[in-house]
Write a structure and sequence with these properties.
8 strands; disordered N terminus; alpha+beta; eight-stranded antiparallel β-barrel
Length: 170
């Protein structure tokens, strides 16, 4: 299996980033940021990459009514050549559940920017699996315009991943 294919399955499975180790005890005791502090546009970068071949970022736009729009950009390269590059647009509903936020996918669109191997990683199964995920989000505010988004998926709650986020100007 191509390295980008392996990475893409992880990215689709995890939607926003790859899975990483357990959350530290410090994060487990951090108070959840109020939804009002999240409203606005955020640019996020993963703390760690799935591989040296992957580059990615995610933009989130949180609305007062709980709607969240996201745009994820991912590129996989091998020996300086792009194997796959795409944008993934997902609309979510943000809800609070037992003291944690949960993102529920509502719709998904994708835009393939480069796919020289004609792999089309967004088949029916991948889209079905993606729409079935629930993402738990624990935002840790680091001032008014910076945050760390600790995230995990309902099917793999022990595997957390973290993104460093910066609020974008309106």
């Amino acid at each position: 299996m191509n390295s980008w294919t392996q990475g893409r399955y992880l990215a689709v499975s995890l939607l926003l980033a790859t899975q990483f180790g357990l959350v530290s005890a410090a994060h487990a005791t951090t108070e959840l940021a109020p939804m009002s502090e999240l409203v606005g546009k955020w640019q996020c970068l993963p703390d760690e990459k799935a591989s040296d071949k992957e580059e990615s970022w995610v933009n989130y736009d949180f609305h007062h009514d709980g709607k969240v729009n996201s745009k994820e950009w991912i590129r996989y390269q091998d020996q300086g050549k792009t194997e796959l590059e795409f944008n993934l647009f997902v609309d979510y509903h943000l809800e609070s559940l037992e003291g944690e936020y949960r993102l529920k996918p509502l719709s998904m669109k994708r835009e393939i920017l480069s796919d020289p191997n004609q792999a089309n990683p967004f088949g029916y199964d991948a889209q079905r699996d993606l729409m079935g995920y629930r993402i738990f989000l624990q935002p840790v505010m680091k001032g008014k315009n910076k945050a760390q988004f600790e995230m995990w998926y309902h099917i793999t709650p022990q595997n957390h991943f973290s993104m460093q986020c910066q609020r974008q100007a309106a």
